[in-house]
């Protein structure tokens, strides 16, 4: 395979809400909050569902790569329940090789409530369910070795079994790409993420907030200088300010597309990563990788959901 994704297998439930709804339920706009099953069901009872679709950050990127005619696969833990079957069907329909044999688990398949406010920002409340229980037994070394690059998500990193699965995948991989996933995620695991970026990863995706947090600065220039010094390939998304790639100290910038009918920012970073990785595995120039990434993210933000 060209790219093998390993991440949280999550079914997305999309709903439109007001800013007041977020305040009333003590939610921070544009972030992801982990919730237990009781809180999830409580929130779900207060909203109207617009759409239900297979999701998960890296899984969305892998589907984008498949739509660009790349041979790809995905590993993510689900249960043999209604949502688990829906999840698996969603990947198979998109020609993604799903490399996990589902079975009845004690926890249900993971679900993410995506709350879309009138400004198109999305705020996520995630009940990980069995997705958060992935372990090293779910990682098959020959599958990892037969992939040109593996793509991991920061959301997956957690102490205990998920961390061991992560480390096992990195050990057997030829090349490793990772998304930092979320500001709160970076703040929780800053020391470990810094170690990964410096010593284990070949390619890192982050938004501006995440990279500033990782490098403990409020200055993008300081963050860029840090990345130049460690000589790593890091791609930073900046919303309507475009994107930046730092490759071995060389900085490439790309403008965002304008005059778009933005309806939902869900999946913007995921599809940006799929476009960039498509260019990367096909030896595009750095600028063309960013242009392809921008094209993919521009498409997804003009529709509801994280799948084109």
Summarize the structure.
This protein is an alpha/beta fold. The protein is 38% helix and 22% strand.
Question: What does this entry look like structurally?
Answer:
The chain has 308 residues and is α/β, with parallel strands linked by helices. It has one domain (3-8, 56-100, 131-300): Ribokinase (UDP-N-acetylmuramoyl-L-alanine:D-glutamate ligase, 3-Layer(aba) Sandwich). The chain has helices at residues 19-24, 37-44, 57-67, 82-93, 141-145, 161-172, 183-188, 190-199, 208-214, 220-230, 268-281, 286-300, and strands spanning 3-6, 10-16, 32-34, 49-55, 72-75, 97-98, 110-116, 122-127, 149-153, 176-179, 203-207, 233-237, 243-247, 250-254. Strands 6-5-1-9-10-11-12-13-14 form a 9-stranded mixed sheet, sandwiched between helices. The chain has a 5-stranded mixed sheet with strand order 3-8-7-2-4. Strand 12 and strand 13 form a beta hairpin. The protein starts with a strand and ends in an 8-residue tail after the last helix. The model has no long low-confidence stretch (mean pLDDT 93).
Q: What is the fold's blueprint, element by element?
A:
Elements: E1 3-6, E2 10-16, H1 19-24, E3 32-34, H2 37-44, E4 49-55, H3 57-67, E5 72-75, H4 82-93, E6 97-98, E7 110-116, E8 122-127, H5 141-145, E9 149-153, H6 161-172, E10 176-179, H7 183-188, H8 190-199, E11 203-207, H9 208-214, H10 220-230, E12 233-237, E13 243-247, E14 250-254, H11 268-281, H12 286-300
Parallel strand pairs: 1-5, 1-9, 2-7, 3-8, 5-6, 9-10, 10-11, 11-12
Antiparallel strand pairs: 2-4, 7-8, 12-13, 13-14
Helix pairs in contact: 3-11, 11-12
